[in-house]
Design brief:
Layout (H helix, E strand, L loop, with lengths): L1 E6 L5 E5 L4 H10 L7 E4 L5 H13 L2 E5 L2 E5 L6 E2 L1 H4 L9 H8 L1 E5 L12 H9 L3 E5 L2 E5 L7 E3 L5 H11 L5 E5 L5 H12 L3 E3 L5 E5 L8 E3 L4 H13 L3 E5 L7 H9 L3 E4 L4 E4 L8 E3 L11 H8 L5 E5 L10 H6 L3 E5 L2 E5 L8 E3 L3 H13 L3 E5 L2 H6 L3 H6 L4 E6 L1
Helix pairs in contact: 1-2, 1-7, 4-6, 5-6, 6-7, 8-10, 8-12, 10-12
Family: Belongs to the EPSP synthase family. MurA subfamily.
Pfam families: EPSP_synthase
EC number: 2.5.1.7
Length: 416
């Protein structure tokens, strides 16, 4: 198992390129199950979750090749089972459920695993698919689904769910008749999935709104498609510039999709400008405290909550974070406190009182975004920080130490 050793206190200065979005690439890869022909995907990040997905697709009957951030997927004779050995490491694996039911009328998918940041039940997925004609049983930790065919339906989610919207969107494109998804998730990654399906011959309207209309088609062909850039990686590097009082140019930065984050960072005192080359960010003055409430898109993303909390630890005054998406997403707080942060939590609210400096310390990563927040804190801290259990980090950031070192950071990877 690897760990990162960070020597803090150095401003980050330079430019870096934002990678393709993991959270967009994963559902698009699972959507390849729906196709009759091969698809080529570009701008696919080289991440553990991506390779887990490619391995799972291979077990389901799709031939996959990955090279230089490009994936070639060729559908074959599909098999229905997504085994626990793979699914337990990645919650997104449940996204094969809708495509398998749409293509072969059966699926046996292990209940998903992933980061320990709270319950993310799949009941919204199952309820929607049942309205389309599927039937489910739970057996020894597996979801067993079957149907003769899927039919269009008018489905209203109890709450916006990204995974549920993606699963039902994929199922609906091959269903008989029309499907309407109400209270659908509006996240850019859902929109990117819809755009890929449209490139393959699907009929979809309303992506990016809370009401998506899908007219089922009999088949989908292959396509070439470039995955969107990763807005959470971009937001993390914006925060890295702020916490180190540096200046970064982020190429291929999805500025429009990051508005909720950039507005808060600007409120903290950072200067963020969109140029012809990318997004330029700098911070040469003390940060100010702000209040943040996580919300579904277009609100402030829960996946940036831990990172902005690291900034708050060094901001003047008091900041308040209200986490409304996941009930167990303050696991980074105790580790930040080990570095000298002053944070108090009560239920889903954290109050952060800014301090003048953080001190390096050994810390333990509990999930993907918590890992990123500890790296950010280590970049700003006096002395040496060891971030352990970074396998979480490798699920969502493409060799983060290489990118940060290219702009002046002092980070090395070692075996624990």
């Amino acid at each position: 198992m690897d760990k990162l050793i960070i020597e803090g206190g150095v401003p980050l200065i330079g430019s870096m390129t934002i990678s393709g979005s993991k959270n967009a690439a994963l559902p698009i890869l699972f959507a390849s199950i729906l196709l009759d022909e091969a698809a080529t995907l570009r701008n696919v990040p080289d991440l553990r979750d991506i390779h887990t997905t490619l391995k799972l697709l291979g077990m389901l009957g799709c031939s996959c090749e990955y090279q230089d951030e490009q994936v070639r997927v060729r559908p074959g004779s599909l098999l229905p089972e997504a085994p626990y050995e793979l699914v337990r490491t990645m919650r997104a694996s449940v996204l094969c459920l809708g495509p398998l039911l749409a293509r072969i009328g059966q699926a046996r998918v292990a209940l998903p695993g992933g980061c320990a940041i709270g319950a993310r039940p799949v009941d919204q997925h199952l309820k929607g698919l049942e309205q389309m004609g599927a039937r489910f049983e739970l057996e020894q930790g597996y979801i067993l689904g079957h149907c003769r065919e899927l039919n269009g339906a008018h489905i209203t989610f109890d709450m916006p769910t990204v995974g549920g919207t993606e699963n039902l969107l994929m199922a609906a494109v091959l269903a008989e008749g029309e499907t309407i998804l109400e209270n659908a998730a509006r996240e850019p990654e859902v929109v990117d999935l819809a755009h890929f399906l449209l490139a393959c011959g699907a009929h979809i309207e309303g992506q990016g709104t809370s009401r998506i209309h899908i007219a089922g088609v009999s088949r989908l062909h292959g396509a070439e498609y470039a995955v969107m850039s990763d807005r959470i990686e971009a937001g993390t590097f914006l925060a890295a510039a702020g916490i180190t009082c540096g200046e970064l140019l982020l190429r291929h930065c999805p500025a429009n999709e990051l508005e909720a984050v950039t507005l808060k960072l600007q409120d903290m005192g950072m200067k963020i400008t969109t140029t012809s080359e990318g997004v330029l960010v700098n911070c040469a003055r003390p940060l100010r405290g702000v209040d943040v409430t996580t919300k579904p898109y277009p609100g402030f993303p829960t996946d940036m909550q831990a990172q902005i909390m690291s900034l708050m630890c060094l901001a003047e005054g008091t900041s308040v974070v209200e986490e409304t998406i996941f009930e167990n997403r303050f696991m980074h707080v105790m580790e930040l406190e080990r570095m000298g942060a002053q944070i108090r939590t009560s239920g889903h609210i954290a109050m952060v009182r800014g301090v003048r400096r953080l001190a390096g310390a050994p810390v333990m990563a509990s999930d993907l975004r918590a890992s990123a927040s500890l790296v950010l804190a280590g970049l700003a801290a006096n002395g040496t920080t060891e971030v352990r259990r970074i396998y979480h980090l490798d699920r969502g950031y493409e060799r983060i130490e290489n990118k940060l070192n290219s702009v002046g950071a002092r980070i090395r990877r070692e075996k624990e």
